Every structure is written in structure tokens, then in C-alpha cells.
Amino acid sequence: MASDAEPGRRRRCCGQDTPDVPKVPDSRGDSDGPRRSSLCDRHCAAINNVQGDLGDLGCHLHRPRVPPATSTPACYQQHSEEVCESCVVRTTLTAENAVEANKLSNNYKFGFKKWKSHVTARPWEDRSEIVKELYSDLNIIRGSGGSTLTCGNVLYLLLFGWWLSLLYVLVAAVMFVTVIGAPYGQLCWDLAGYFLWPFGKVIQKVEVPKCHQACEAGAGESSALLGGPTPRRWRPQCWAGTGYWHRASTVAWLFLGYPVLALAHGLVCVTAWLLIILIPVAKLSARAASRVLLLPPERVLIRRLRMTEVPLEGEVILCCYRAANPYYYKYAVDGINVFAVNLLPLVLVTLVLGYADSPNHLTGSAVKFTLALLSIMPLSYYIGMAIASISAQSNFAVGAVVNATFGSITELTFYITALIKGSREGNRCYAEVVKSALTGTLVGCVLFVPGLCMVIGGIRHQEQRFNSRSAGVSSALLFLSVGGVFAPTLFSKVYGKLVCGECHNVTQNPLGHYLCHNCHFDLMDNNGTLYYSHVQPLVYTVSILLPAAYLIGLFFTLKTHTHIYDIHISDCHMPGHHHSAVVHWSRWRALVILLLSTLCMSACADLATEHISPILTNSTISQYFIGVTVLAMVPELPEIVNGIQFALQNNLSLSIEIGNCIAVQVCMLQIPILVLFTIFYPTNFTLVFSDLHVYASMFSVVLMNYIFMDGKCDYFQGTVLVMVYFILLAVYFFAPSPSGC
């Protein structure tokens, strides 16, 4: 998600300026030529107006730009045919290797998880200069670093520089007091000035001459590196090479000075790493504690770059120009985005605090519930990364099984644990919260996810186009799934008996008007004859038909009508793309991470449901609102981030498919699985929703289908979807709590 976010190369599919693509006559006859040519011209003109690209996923709308001298006629003929085909129905992609090609192809397959990040290591030469700078060590000297007075450097001074420098001064005083540690005292004094403002300075490891050579040369010899008298601290001594770790000064340093400074640098390193944009400061502190402070003091040289040239001999250990870099949100560790890395310790804290402090002595239920929800976000990321890695390195059958099995594991884990807890406590509120979360996921993925992607993508691109045919397939499945899911609800409204909690006669007339509260349709009248004889069989029928429809949709899009998602991996690769795949996670490693993340997800979901009860009981906010917002959208945050990144790369088709696929899976997979679960483990969950859920879901699907009708959109249409979503949230916020809560 981050390591591969530099701007991709843009290539238009076809256009007027295509001198490097020779014209090839149509081999299928003149009768078909004009029709095909006019259709291609219309598509090409539209695409050239948009100038879209598929972003830095390594996939591009491909037009060959290989010079004629280095290209074969066969390759030209192949691509001249593909130019028109790609304008009509085909998207031609280029990838660094076969594994990335599989991942890109899986992104366009219905039912597969859409993943933005690379699952293999990108070739270093293909990365932008911005990203190269992120991964470079702090030992590179630039020709001109520019001014060092920047906001990030001042922030470093205010957060770390002043007290770190003061600490070095105190340690220097202690080492001077010991007398034998005087060389380290002088080193700490020099480092105090360095860490107060390290920018534009360099720390170098100098080579000390041999002991006998130094003694023969005498104490007053000039330095060969600096060309002048050698400073007293840097003057080679006859004991310099006689066992650094056995010196008395080194022992005093390791016991009195180094532990305090190492602890301080460790604190700076962790804090700067968590702030992300200050990762250069974390690298600076880590290198200082592991390299600089463990060198003999006579081998450490500190100087300003603008005062003199760097010596030809000696190793540069530290050279920093900027304390902050806003592009570090792209930074990745072994393919894992830095945000997911930083949130991983939160999972451990949540599990330890949740299970070790069961009586809530340290923290309350609200804190534990919040931590459990926040822990779901990095776990969702790891599950998504593992699924994408396994699918990219496996055949289609294995990828389909993994996506179908673990694609909805995040949501199902929470729903099932909530239903189990509600069944044990005899509390119907948990079932209502699960229904609210299901509806919130459906509405959010239909309105909020594509709407937000349209708005953010529309800021960079005036108009964005997407595959209306693939969006039409998802829309049809959404209509079918929403109709099937809410069919038992509509049936109960028609044939159920309306029962109210309390009614008051407004006019004091027995035949007058009555004001009733807490009304609902009772399905258990006459010993539940209506429910057990009519509603429950309908629920089971729908739960069988919906997964069957999902399988038919998979067969339709992936087998019989693959041209809807026709993705072609170009055979004529661009220069620089002949690289072997170096995967971040092997299949076995990805499988282990997937299983461990699923296990941790189950534990976090158990903690969330364990500590949600006081929030539902004591909160003044409607339980509807809690379900449709927090419980529904927090697990989907990694998917939202992926959709935004696709939209910024003008690949809105995948942004829309992310929301549509989640919504379809909610109705066609998650709900039938919950119904199947209630057969073997009876709970209070019934497939009868409130009127608010029915109206919100149906209105959202109709509006989404209307917006996606023409295959193009802009930020205004996205704003409409987002505003409608917020209006529905306002309705849920002011709605009374459901019955049973």
C-alpha cells in the first residue's frame, strides 16, 4: 500500500500522435472495417480526453513505445491489433513479473480481494526518486542540501534536540569526573552540539594509524586527512589498537555513560517512528546508539559540511539534512505499510490488557472496546495482504477458495461472537446490533466508499470513467441480494400481527384515536405458527438461493463472459521489467500470517463483544447508530484506503468494485452463513429487519445504480453519494433504540 505508491508511467491507449505504431490493414474484410474503426475512434477520443492510467500498481493502459529499430514486426502487428481491442473491451497491463501479473489480474476478477500494494519487491530502478530517498541510509552526502532551517528540523529541536543535547552535557560531566573516561567526556561534549542541531553535519569514522607508526611519527605530526595539526582528542595513541574493549575508559563508559544515552536514543527512536513523518530521526537515533556510541572516541570525527570537504578516507556514519519527510506514509517494512507495522503492538496490548485485567481494575470497558476495534484495522490489513499473496502465487482454484473462505472472516468473526454472547445472556440487543452492522456495511459500501473515492479522485482528475458493464453485473447482483435478504421482512409485514407495547386514547373516546408506542409485528402468534410454518422456511430458501446466485455470478464473470473483465498481460514488456519475482511473503508464510491474524481477530472480536454491553446500556446514542457506523465501517478501513489509492490513480473501476463486492458478499455470503450458524447454535438472530434498515438499503442500491448508469462520474456525483450517506447516518442517530435494547 505504501512502498509502491510513487506516480506511475502514463500511457494512452491510442490517439492521434501514434507515429510509432504502424497501420495494419484489417484482415477480416472491408465490411467490418468501418464499423470497428468508428467505434474505436469514439472510444479512443473519450479515453484521450480523460488521459487515465491504472496507476503505479505496475499496470498501465499499454501502447507500445519501443523504437522501430529494436522492435520486431510481429510485435508491432500484435500491438496494433491490441490498440483498438483495448479501447473497446480490453485492458492491457504490464507487470514486473508473473506474480504481480497474477495479482493485477485477480484485482479485476469478481469475488477476489482488490489489493493495491505490491506482493513482490519492486525493482529499485523502477522506483521514483522520492521513494528511493525514503529507503536510503543516513550516510549519503549531497552536493547541496539547501537550507537546513525547515519546519521539520525546528520540530525536532523542540521535541528531542534540546533535552537530548542537555543529557549529553550531563553525561560528559560525569565522564570527566571519572578522569579515566575523559576521552568519552570530550566525545559526549561534541555530540551534545551535534544532536542539538544535527542537520548539515556529518559524523565520520576515521582510520587510526598503527600504534608503532603513530609512535614513530611523534606527537606533533600533522594529520594526513585534514592537512593540518591533529586535534588532541584525535591524535593517535600508542594503546589505540591494543584491545578497545579492555580499556578502563571503555569499561567506565559502558557502565556509566552508554546505558543512559542508549535508553534516551531508544525513546527517541520509538517516538519518532510512531510519528511516521519523523522516521529519519528514528534512523538517526538508532544508528547513533548502535554505531557511534560504540566506537573508540579517537575514531569519531564530527564536522560541518560547509566548512571543509569530506576526507577521501573514512566511513560516513551519519549525515542528515531533514528531520521530517511527509512521504513516509509510503514507507513499508517487508511489504507491510508503516501504519500497519505501528498498529501491530496495539493488538498485543489489547489482548494482554483484555484478558489479564478481566475485572477492569486498570481500565474500563469503554477503553477496552475502543482498543479492540482499533486492533481490528491492522489485522484486517494483514488478512488482506495474506489473501492477495496466496492468490497471486497460486492457481485460480486455490485463489478462489482462499478468497471465499477468508474474504469475509473479519466481519463474520465479530457477528458470530456477538450472537453467541447475546444467546448466552438472553439479550436480543446483540442480534439487533448485528443487523445494524450488516445494514451499515451494505449502505456504507454502496454509498460512502465509492462516493469518497469519486470525491478524492475527482480532485486530481476532472472526469473519471469506469467499466459500466462490470458495474452493471454488481448492480444486478445487489438488486437480487437486497430483494432476497429483505423478502422475509416484507413477508412478515404483510402477514404478521401488529403488537404495541402501550397505547393511550388521545380523544377519551373509545372509538377515537390511539397513540401507541413500541409497536412491532409479532411472528409468534398462535405458538409461532406464522414464523415456523412460513417465515422460517422462507429464510432457509433465501439462504440457499443467495449463495447459488453468487456462484452463478462467479461463473458468469470468470468463465462464460470473461470479456467483461478482459485483462491482458502484455507479452512485449517495457524495458526494465525483466525481473524475477522476489515475493514479500511466500505462500507458507502468508498462510501462517493469515491463520494467526484470524486467531487474533477472533480474540479481539470476543473482547469487543464482551465490553460493548455497558456502552449499549449506558450510552445515550441509539444502538442503531453504533451498529451502522463503528461496528460496520471500522473493519472496512483497509478496503477504503485501497479504494482511495485506486481512485487517485484514475482507476475508479476497482474503487467501485471494492464497495460493490463487499456489499454483495454481505447479502449473499455473510447473511446466509449467519443463518446456517443459527441452525446449529440457536441464537436470537432472525432475518427480519426493521423498516429503517429496509428503506435505507433499498434507497442506497437504487441511487447507486442510477449514478453508475453512464460509466463516468466526477466529484459532484461522489459528493451526492457521501451526503446521502451522512443523511442516513443522521436518521440512525436520532432514531430510537430498537426493541429489546
Describe this structure in words.
With 741 residues, this protein is mainly alpha-helical. It folds into 2 domains: 152 residues, no CATH class; 381 residues, Up-down Bundle (A middle domain of Talin 1). The chain has 24 helices and 13 strands. Strands 3-2-4 form a 3-stranded antiparallel β-sheet, with helices on one face. It has a two-stranded parallel sheet with strand order 1-12. Helix 13 runs parallel beside helix 22 and helix 15 runs parallel beside helix 22. It is elongated and about 100 Å long.
SSE map:
Elements: H1 33-50, H2 73-88, E1 91-93, H3 98-107, H4 129-135, H5 151-177, H6 182-196, E2 201-205, H7 211-217, H8 248-275, H9 279-290, E3 300-304, E4 315-320, E5 332-333, E6 336-337, H10 338-356, H11 365-392, H12 396-406, H13 409-425, H14 429-460, E7 464-465, H15 468-485, H16 487-495, E8 497-499, E9 502-505, E10 514-517, E11 520-522, H17 525-560, E12 567-569, H18 587-610, H19 613-618, H20 623-633, H21 637-648, H22 652-680, H23 691-707, E13 712-713, H24 715-734
Parallel strand pairs: 1-12
Antiparallel strand pairs: 2-3, 2-4, 5-6, 7-13, 8-11, 9-10
Helix pairs in contact: 1-2, 3-11, 5-6, 5-8, 8-9, 10-11, 10-18, 11-12, 11-18, 13-14, 13-18, 13-22, 14-20, 14-21, 14-22, 14-23, 14-24, 15-17, 15-22, 15-23, 16-17, 17-22, 20-24, 21-22, 23-24
Domain Inner membrane component: 151-201
Biased composition (Basic and acidic residues): 23-37
Protein name: VNX1 protein
